[in-house]
Design brief:
It is a single chain. The protein is α/β, with parallel strands linked by helices. It has 2 domains: 54 residues, 2,3-Dihydroxybiphenyl 1,2-Dioxygenase, domain 1 (Roll); 84 residues, Roll (2,3-Dihydroxybiphenyl 1,2-Dioxygenase, domain 1). It contains 3 helices and 8 strands. A hairpin with a 3-residue loop joins strand 6 and strand 7. The mean pLDDT is 96.
Amino acid sequence: MDKDYIIPANTRIGHVHLKVADLKRSLDFYCGLLGFEITLMYGQEAAFISAGGYHHHIGLNTWYSKGSPEADKRSVGLFHTAIVYPAKKDLALIYNRLNITQYTFTGFADHGVSLALYLDDPDGNGVELYWDKPKEEWPQKDDSSLEIYTRRLDLQDLMKEL
């Protein structure tokens, strides 16, 4: 095996596919609240959803999980699905939308490289909604490596984008 192999720079994560307990409830969250659009339904058991017409960013299915309890936070599995917003204003808009509906947040963070909102979907799967700061603003350590941290997100500053 070639130990010098490096994954191509333009590689990206195409989609996440989640097992959910209740498809309608998940569609209400991901489409009704977060604004994704349904691109394909597989009967009443699965759906593909996307932003901007992509074939799918998120797959949702009940094939093995219909009626199951919430995901266990203290078990192996998905920590969170991270959804990147194109502009800081877009992050402010979704924060405001969720705040108006009184959706429960689990955290907020300024990571130096990004600003993030954290919440759980109806199945207890973690969701991170974030905006990447411009690359030239990413903090660096003395050795030029990235310095990613978790600091308090200034929500009042975020809301100035509206």
